[in-house]
Amino acid sequence: LYVSEYFSQSAQKLSFYSWYGNAKLFHFHVPEDTVLLRWLLQASRGKGPECTSMEITVHFRHGAPPVINPLGTRFPANATVRPSYNISITLSSAVQNTTFVNVTTPAAGDWFIAAHLPEAAGRIEVKGFSTPCPYMFQADMFVLRLTDMPVLEPGVPMPHTVVSPAKPLHVKVFVPKHAAGMRFQLSSCVTSEQRACTVRVLLGSITLPQSFQRSLTCTGSINCSLALDSPPWEKWLQIMVESLGTANASVSVEMLASFTVCRPGSTGSFLNFISLNQSQAGARPGAAGSSAPAAGEAPRNASGQRSSCLQSQPVVREDLDVVSVRYRLLNGPSVPVSPLSPTLLLLNLNTGMDSGGSLVVSLLLNKTSVSLANATVAACVSAASPVLSLNATRNCSTAFSQGYPLSVSTSSAEAMLIVLYPQTDDWFLSLQLLCPTGQGECTSAEAKVTVFAYLTPCFNDCGPYGQCSLLRRHGYLYAGCSCKAGWGGWSCTDDTKAQTVGTQNLATLLLTLSNLMFLPAIAVAVYRFYLVEASVYTYTMFFSTFYHACDQPGVAVMCIMDYDTLQYCDFLGSVVSIWVTILCMARLKKILKYVLFVLGTLLIAMSLQLDRRGVWNMMGPCLFALLIMVTAWVHHGAKRRHCYPSSWKRWVFYLLPGITLAFIAISVYAFMETNENYYYTHSIWHVLVACSVAFLLPPRDKHKKPWAWSQKLTCRYQICQNDREELYAVT
């Protein structure tokens, strides 16, 4: 009666880790009644010489993407962090590695795998100069499930037989809503040889990174039982019974499951929902008459609330955007909390698209509402089932999960909890007033607590030094923070390596003011009457200055227009400046030179639109312009029958220094820039390129004076100049 199913996803190229967006995510759904889950993990690398041994880290989690911290940074305050379950896969001499991971009786629902390489080196690589080694990773899932798993009915003893130790018995029982406790009992355990048996019972399913599966070992024919507090509501609970006896003997057992149901108090949620609609839509006929019974029912419901085991407050889920939800209490933001029974709020996060953000729960105690000075309001945030015994224990544990505790008092009236990537489930907030021992008036005390609960993609929008990015894996969306200016951490709150404000201002000044080194090149171009070239250099200086002023990660930022526009104009100006400089050195005829100027600029603009960071967008125009220049110089040299340029001073004092500066600038740009030294290495690139342009611009024509305009007089005669014969005639 077993059915096997196989699920596969396409391989992804791994990246070195610097933030969560570098981790490659795989999303699978495990069906119900699965008794065996097997992951097939395949990792491979390229065969080139640039490929070295590498360690791949793979993280697993049920219900939500794994919360990982490969860099060892700090999480935000009040955030709950539980280490993820991970394994390492090493790619050494072998090109491919295959690893299997088995999980017995896995929990049904969403499972996530995240894989990444070690920490990024931080070097800025120019696309096309180096070929990175491709590391690929693929995860496949194999499940084995029962087609007809026996159902254990509550309160009804059910006999079953364990055929052999190699074939354990699997049954399931449905946990109803408002179940406060469950009791499992196993009796009449005998073997086929009429001997005392030994069996082990496993209740619940395995979840990662933490598993709360309960184990019970029964020996002999005596009854053995296990009591569970707060089992998961409205879910199937798997029970596996395996024999620990001899291999050939079967075992007969009798199982019984019973539940203790908690009766919730009346909250008048339907009447509150009607009044909410009336307040939003305005007064309607009969509104006054319908609100009167709600006021009259409050005293009658008070005695019922005192005798119930929990008080449920109605909560409205309001979807705002992707991975963005706000929870509104129909009775107002303040909820009454008593010591007799816990107050319960349901936070619905079971849509399957809510686990990629952060759940934030904030509590604020109204100090004037507490009649006891030393009283404390204890709260627990838990998934699948609520914590119903806050006065007995403060660890917020349920049958198969561990909740998150909170508390407020008159001395500390505020508390906040941040759940990173909450698992897909129904979440509950339980609140109860705990009074000091020896105070008899505690039963009549009450406290008012203001509750704010919401789901956000990134907590605090990643702060001033981070950017919240929405990531996608197929149809699943999740969010992550990309930090800047040396800040780190899950929400960019770790300032261990953060840049100071002075360093940020220095970086901005270096990257912007270094572009002023284009002023000598502009002056030389204007002096030598290269007005088109001077206009291109001015364009490059202007947009490079304001692009780097807008590109800064810290507080010293100024954007005069859209960032993408500034970046495109900066890249375009840089490449076109190199293009026109080399063509100007070729000494072409003016008409041909300007045609190449315009045509080359149009082609460069097109190539930058296709791939802005490709190395051939710069190297292609440079090489083509150098080919034109060399061809023109050879033509000039053959025509004059001597080397061109002919002056040794031109080579020693202008061309060789300019070429040297250009080669140093390219080396710095391509091989020396990192994230840490970017602000001064890129500034050096600005200075070297601008200085090389000033050296490489050719001199003006020998027979043309600077700004030698033709002189036109209005006295009925014209002075003519003959450059060749140097004779003047008056006509």
From TrEMBL:
The SS bond pairs are 458-468, 483-492
Q: Which InterPro entries match?
A: EGF, NGX6/PGAP6/MYMK
Membrane topology field:
Multi-pass membrane protein
Renumbered to this chain, region (Disordered) spans 284-311
Q: Using the record's annotation, list all stretches that form the EGF-like domain.
A: 454-493
Keywords (A to Z) from UniProt: Cell membrane, Disulfide bond, EGF-like domain, Membrane, Transmembrane, Transmembrane helix
Q: Does the keyword Membrane apply?
A: yes
Q: Where is the composition biased (Polar residues)?
A: 302-311
Residues that span the membrane, as ranges: 506-530, 591-610, 616-635, 651-672, 678-697
GO CC annotation terms, alphabetical: plasma membrane
Judging by the UniProt lineage, the source's domain of life is: Eukaryota
Which portions of the chain have biased composition (kind: Low complexity)? 284-300
Entry's localization field: Cell membrane
Q: State the family named in the UniProt similarity comment for this chain.
A: Belongs to the TMEM8 family.
Name-wise, this protein is TMM8A factor
Q: What gene codes for this chain?
A: Tmem8a
